[in-house]
Amino acid sequence: MLTQHQNDLLTRSGPGTPGGKLLRCYWQPVALANELPAGAAPLPIRVMGEDLVLFRDEQGRPGLLALRCPHRKADLSYGRVEAGGLRCVYHGWAFDIHGRCLEQPGEPRESSYKDLIRHTAYPCVDVSGLILTYMGEGAPPALPPFPFFSAPSDHVWTRRMIHECNYLQGNEGNIDPQHLSFLHRVDMGAQVTYGSYLARDEAPVIDVTETSYGVRIETSRIIGEGRRYVRTTNFIMPNNSSFVGVPLVDPKVASPDSNDGYSLNWHVPIDDYTHMKYAICYRISGPIDADLQERLIADGLKEDLSGVRNRRNRYLQNRDEMRASTFIGMGANFQDHDRWVTESQGPIVDRTTENLGSTDRAIIAMRKQMLSAIDAMEQGKLPLFVHEDAADYRLEEFFTGSRIESARDAAQ
Ligand code: FES
Ligand SMILES: [Fe+2]
Known about the structure:
CATH topology of the largest domain: Naphthalene 1,2-dioxygenase Alpha Subunit, Chain A, domain 1
CATH class of the largest domain: Alpha Beta
Bound molecules: FE2/S2 (inorganic) cluster, fe (ii) ion
Shape: globular
Number of strands: 19
Largest sheet: 8 strands, antiparallel
């Protein structure tokens, strides 16, 4: 349970809010690179309550500017990509990716007025099919050396989708290992899969360790014959997580290896009541089966990135299906289940009236870490997992995967 003040600190992300300032200390994804190929129309986007326009200049560099032109506030996403930047189509002012005003055609030729104009601009980089930005003050931190940032492009598969709820609900769902025994349960018959291990022990033991990047969560389930199934999941400051996800290659083609990569869910606020979830899948040893990911993850998304199953149609819940095969009657796609549950908690969870249990240990640790990071930041210190030098990120302790071990050995 949190106080209202703590809940506000963690959930409000607009400019100037403590939580918003914390999120702005980190690089954040704002689009997929394939949504903005060279020559594409600029994209209007909303991030943490700010209306922005993302574009690629004639050199192919991504730029992120405040949406409204600093002259008389026309929408720059309708602008022309030319003159070394983005030109407003109202009176022709042009801006580069750094927010410098390059041209003001209506002003006297000798005027230096344009040099006084500095439009809001955030630095962007293309990394692993994502466009990342830094919306904080001062120079951006170094990029964390996540292995998937430097992997060959066909080892990484990414999609994004809208969730109609606060981003913290996404954070919390990712590090709530017990829900895997219920929410996502799909009848697999007699087949022994990792999914069935999750259903075999509904009261897993959850261990939590604070790390240099966030929280490591080890979840153990007794699966019979003296064995236990252990999964390692991570909360990554301040709005990301990594976990054993869907198979990265078709199990009919290659034997599944849950330690040959992982999935990440990165939850970026659009505003306080909506967020964009970036679902990233990374395979270490070779190319990902992109068609398989498309079927397992992207199936069920509309073109506008909202879900086919949504609040307006009660997520197409089917009671016959609940009796016959799935626990919640919403198909087999985990993304749909997670979107339903996080949205069903309301636009912003009222954490002043919740009743946490022992399986919420990781969520409690994450909230504490976020609140201390806000504290540290307010005292002028760098929050956890922000470094000016890439060498200072300690990702050698970062592991995501699963193992089966003897329950007897483990108890000794
Ligand atoms: S409003 Fe953009 S140039 Fe005038
Ligand atoms: Fe889930």
